[in-house]
Structure formats: C-alpha cells, structure tokens
C-alpha cells in the first residue's frame, strides 16, 4: 500500500515539476586534451550549457542555462600515478512564464586517482600510446533541494556521494593523435531519498599538432561524444521519463594551445542526436574554456 501511494504521488508530481529537469543531465566534469605526465597543473575551466523544455502535458515551456566554473588541478606523483581534483561554482537560471529564477553556489567537489596502466613512447618514430584508468568520488559540498517532490535541478549540488570509474586512452603518431575517454558514474540516494540516475559518457577526439612560434604548440581537435543517463529514483521507485533520463550525442570541435607554462583550450559542442526526458527537453549547445598553469615535475 505504501508503495502504491508513493507511485500515485510520483504521477501527480510529474505533472507539476517536469519543467525543472535539466540540471541532472548537464555536462559532467571530464578531461579532454591533457598535458604530459611530466607536468602538474592547476587552472580554471568554465562551461556554458543551455536547454529548452516544452512540457506537453501542461503546455509549459522554459529555458534553463547552467554556467559552471571550476578550480581544478592535477598532481603527478610519478609517470604512472596521478590525482585530480575539481571544486565548481555554478550559476544556474531558468526562464519560465516571463520570470527568471536564479540559484548560484558552490557545487559538488570531485577527487580522482589515476594509474597509467600502459605508457609506451618511441621518440625516434614519434609515437606514443597511453592507457590511464582510475576512479574517484563526488562529495556533496553543494546545496541541494530538501524537498524530494521538488526535484529542482537548478540547485548546484545533488546531496549524494557519487562514484566514478574512468578510462583515458591516447595514441599519437607524428603530429596526428586519437583520444578515447569513458566515464561511468554510479550515483547514490541523498538524505531526502532522491537518487539521480547513473550516467555513462564516451568520447572520441582526433587532433593534429601544429608548431607555431617558439615554444608554442597548437592542437586543433574534433570528435564526437555520447552521454546517457538512466532514470531517477524516489524512495527506490523509478521516476517516469519526464525527469532526467535520456541520451544525447554531440559533435565537438575546439583547439588547445600550449605556450611556455600555460595551456589554453576552447571547445564547442552541438547536438547531433538527442532524446532527453521523452523528447520534452532539447539541448541548444555547449561552450567550454579552460586555462591551466603547468608546473614541471621535479
């Protein structure tokens, strides 16, 4: 009986809150182009992503914008072992019925450890092959909704401890390179018994190294990424498709520049295919910029 009542409340809640659904499917923190293992780094990365929601049941529409700026860095213990961290600050907003709602604040921090399982380099042939595997944790340092029926994803945090497993493969021959990244995120229930859906991301990038001025290297890149999220749960009961579940495939194009002790990256993403929240949500696009200070490892 308790489960039946919960399911009925869920059904009613879907018709009330289904426009507030985009935060749980916003872009995860990933890696992309990385400096070599001879460097530590610390920097700032900022990303912009926007969704448009058309909720067919109540004939409502809204536009959700998420701006994430994070302090991140890497400590390279040796050629094979490293640790990375991320502390984000989010500026989230929703425009609905002519009114704008804004919620800003520190988000959930992340800490990952990596091991270079394969590290092969041939300086004569100018080839290299690297496979990094690792895992980490997302800590609920950001504020989150204390009302399980609100499911307002404008909040900067989720309230849950989440765990990730990551693999990062890079292959270079001459000036040409390929990168494949995979990230699985296992999410847990937060204190109000809300659990965001588990997520999987895969990305393939092709890059080409271009030497510019002295001590300046350009790496234009292009590729494709896919991001899939399973259904959310409230009190262990799956929430219907009008929440965070869905799939999106993006084309990604950008450029990285290494100059002396600095690394800059600019990346654009446009949707090629998307099926978010049963088709009610459409992603407009994403832009990301990062700047990192490289520290030579002793």
Describe the structure in your own words.
The chain has one helix at 2-17; strands at residues 39-55, 60-76, 81-96, 99-106, 109-122, 127-139, 162-173, 176-186, 194-195, 199-208, 210-211, 216-229, 233-234, 237-238, 246-259, 262-276, 281-296. It has 298 residues and is mostly beta strands. It has one domain: Lipocalin (Beta Barrel), CATH 2.40.128.130. The strands form 2 sheets. The protein has a 12-stranded antiparallel β-barrel. Strands 9-13-14 form a 3-stranded antiparallel beta sheet, covered by helices on one side. Residues 1-27 have low confidence and may be disordered.
Percent of residues in helices: under 10%
Query: What does the overall shape look like?
Result: globular
Mean pLDDT: 84
Number of domains: 1
Task: Tell me the series of helices and strands, N- to C-terminal.
Answer: HEEEEEEEEEEEEEEEEE
At the fold tier of CATH, the topology name is Lipocalin
What characterizes the major β-sheet? 12 strands, antiparallel, barrel
Look at the helices and sheets and give the structural class: mainly beta
Point out poorly predicted stretches: 1-27
Amount of beta strand = over 45%
Strands in their spatial order, largest beta sheet: 1-2-3-5-6-7-8-10-12-15-16-17
The CATH homologous superfamily name equals Autotransporter beta-domain
CATH class: Mainly Beta
DSSP strand tally: 17
Query: What value does the Rg take, in angstroms?
Result: 20 Å
Terminal CA distance reads 64 Å
Oligomer: single chain
Give the second-level CATH assignment, the architecture: Beta Barrel
| Number of helical elements | 1
